[in-house]
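writing this on my phone so excuse typos. first protein, seq and then structure
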Amino acid sequence: MEKRKKVIVVGGGFAGLELIKGLGNSKKYEVTLVDVNNYNFFPPLIYQVSTGFMEPSAISYPIRRILREKESVRFRLGSLERIIPAENKIILSNGELAYDILVMATGAESNFFGNRNIEKYSLPMKTISDALSLRNTILARLDRATRLDNVEERRKLLTFVIAGAGPTGVELSGILAEMSTSILKKDYPELGQEDLGGIYLIDGQDAVLSAMSPRSQAYTYKKLRQYGVKIKLDTIVKDFDNERVYLSDGSEIQTKNLIWAAGVSAKTFEGIQKESLGRGKRMKTNAYNLVDGYQNIYALGDCALVSGDDAFPDGHPQLAQPALQQAKNLARNLEKGEGEWKPFAYKDKGSLAIIGRNKAVLDFPKQKYFLKGFLAWLIWIFVHIMGLVNFKNRIRAFFNWIGYYIYRDQYFRMIIKPKERENT
C-alpha cells in the first residue's frame, strides 16, 4: 500500500473543520487537527454569550466528538509555538509533530493597533473566554452600581462604549440597548433610568456596517438611534485609562467599559518569513491557498490573503463563507492529481446583520437587493441556527431564542469564575 501523507491542520474553526470534513476518511492522508481548545465554537453568536442571552454550550461542541466518524483524523490539544519548515515539523506547547503538508487555519485575533492601554483595560470579544469574561464584568459592575451612592461612579459603571460599528459592534449595541430597557428594570430595581450612562457606538468609518449596502447602513443607523444608542462616526478611540475613553475629536466619555470590536489581525508564528505576510498580517497565498515562499504550507480563512481571484484583488472578507469555501476547494484539490487542481474563486452569498428584536438587514449577492425588518430577522435566525455544528446545538439555540422572544428575558446571567489547576 502507498504510504499516506501526514497532514497537520492548525485551527479547529470554520476552515479547519471544513477541511477535515473533506479529508476525514481519505485513503491518501493521515490528518492531525491541532487546536489550543478542545472545542469548536460559532463566533457569530459569541456576543449573545457575552450578554447572558445564550449559554456557551449552545454555540460550542467538543472537537473529539465531532471527529468520531473521521477514521483518518486524530486530535492534538496544544498551542502552536513555531514552525520549522526546513525540517517539516511544528513545535507545540506540549511536543512536536512532523508533517508532509501543513495547513494554517489559525483565524484572527483582536487588533489593538499598538495601544497598550486599550489592550490592557478594554474588553475584547473574540473567544469564548473573552465572552465569559465580558459577561462576568458586565454583571459584576451592574451589581456594584447598586451599592454605590456616588452618582458619577454609578454612571461610569453603567456606560458602555463599543469601538467598531461592524456586525459585532452593531449586534452588541442593539442587545445591550434591549437589556437596558427590559431586563435591568426587573433585575436591578435599585437603579433608575437616570443612572444609566448610555451606550456609545464608535467607528472611524463614515457609516455603520461599512461593508454592507448604503440602504442597510441607513436602516441600521436609524434603528440603533431609536434604541437610544449614541453613534459617533468618523471618530476613533485614541486611548483608554479604565476611567474614561479619549476620542479623536477631542471629546471624552466617562466609563469603565470599553468593549473592543474595532479590528482584527491574523495570528503570526515564528517560522513564517515576513515576506510571506501581507495586509493585516495575513499570509499571502496563490489561488490554490499555497503560502508564498513555501512548497507544502497552505493557509485558509481569516489568516489567508488569497491572490488570483479577480473579483477580490485586495483579498476576501474575513467571514465564515470565504473560509468554508476555501477549505472545500483545498480538500477537493488535495484528493485530486496536481494537474486537476482548481483555483479558488469566492461565491458571494450575501451579508446579514441583526440589530435587535424583529430587526435585521440582509444584502443579497453583489448588494443588488436589500431586505430589512422582520423577514430579514427570520432569515438571520435560520442561517445562524443552521451554521451551528450539530443538531443539538441548533435545537438548544432555537429554544433559547424562542424563550427570549416570548418573555424578553433569559436566565444565563450568572457570574462564573473558574479556577484552573496548575500542572494539569
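second protein below, same order as before
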Amino acid sequence: MNERQRVAWRTLGCRANQYDTELMKSRLGEGFESASPEEEAEIYIVNTCTVTAHAEAKARQYIHSYARRGLVLVTGCWATVAPEEVAKIPGVALVFPNAAKPQVGRLVREALSGRRGIVRPESDGAPLDEERISRDTSHLRAFVKVQDGCDRFCTFCRTVFARGRSRRKSPQAVLAEVSGLVENGFVEVVLTGIDLASYDDLAGLLWALDGLAGLKRIRLSSLNPEGITPELLEFFRESEKACPYFHLPLQSGDDSILKRMNRGYTVADYWEKVKLIKAALPEATLGADVMVGFPGETEEHFQRTYRLIEELRPLRLHIFRFSPRPGTAASPTKFRRGSSGNGQSGSARSGSA
C-alpha cells in the first residue's frame, strides 16, 4: 500500500451525518490523509442519506462519478436500510452501515486488500459516549452529535430503520468533547441529533457547556416542538453564549395531516411553542420544515399550511415534496386513505432497529 493514500469524503443529509464524517476522518489511522470530494484521491467514501428519493439519486450520481476515479466505499443511512440496492451500483467496492462507521480505518484497509460486498453489522454500534471528535475540518463552528436515533415512527420517515432507537451521549462525554474542541480553537458549537428534543434535560446540558471557558457561542440544530420548555427558554434568555435561533419542524399546518403523519402535536400545540419563544425572547428567530403532497393532502389542507406560514413568517423555510419511503406506513403499498397514521403499527414496528 502506498504511503498516505488520499481519502475523499462526500456527505449528504443532516448535521448528524456531517458529524459522522468527521468522526470517520479521525478514525482512519496512519497512512491516510483526507481530501475534499472535488479532489483526486485513491479512495472515495460516500456518506449517504435516505430521507428522500432525491437524496438517494444524488448519492448514486456521486458514486458513478467516483467509480471512474478510485475505490468507492458507501455508508450512511441509505447504505444501512438498502445495502443490497447500493451494492449493485457499478463501481461500489464495499457497503457498510452506520453502526460500522467507527471501524472505517479497518474497513478501508480491507477494501484495499480486496474485500468486496456488504459489511453486516456485528452490533447496534458503540455507545455514543465513545464517539468523539477534536476537530471539525469542514466548518468554522463545530457540530457535536449529542443524540442519535428516533422513537417517533413518523409515517413518512425511515430514519428509525437507519439510525435505531433514540439514545443520548452523557453530559460528561459531551463536556469532554467540547472541551477538546475549544482547546483546538473552536469557539462555537452546534449541538445536533436526529431527535434533539428527546435529550433528557437538554437545558441542564446547555448550562454545563455555558461554564466552559473559551466557548463563546452555543447553538441548537433542528428541534421538535416539544423540546421547547420553560427551562430551555430560560437558558437562552440568561446565557450570553446562547444564539436564539430555533428551527422547529412543522411539516403541515393541518391537524388531520399531522395526525396521519404521526407527528404527535397539533397546529395549536405548535403555535403555543412559538408564543412561548416570542414571549421569552422577542429577538429570537425561527425556521421551519414543511412537506407538501403528503398522501391525502387536499387543496384545503395545503391552503391551511400556506396561511400558517404567512402568519409565522419564519426566517428560514425548508419546503420539500413528499417522497415515498419503502417500509414506511405512508408508502403507496402501506398507506390507506383515512388510516390513523399510527407509525408504530404494522411494518413500521417490525422494521425498527
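The longest strand covers residues 285-292. thats all i got for now
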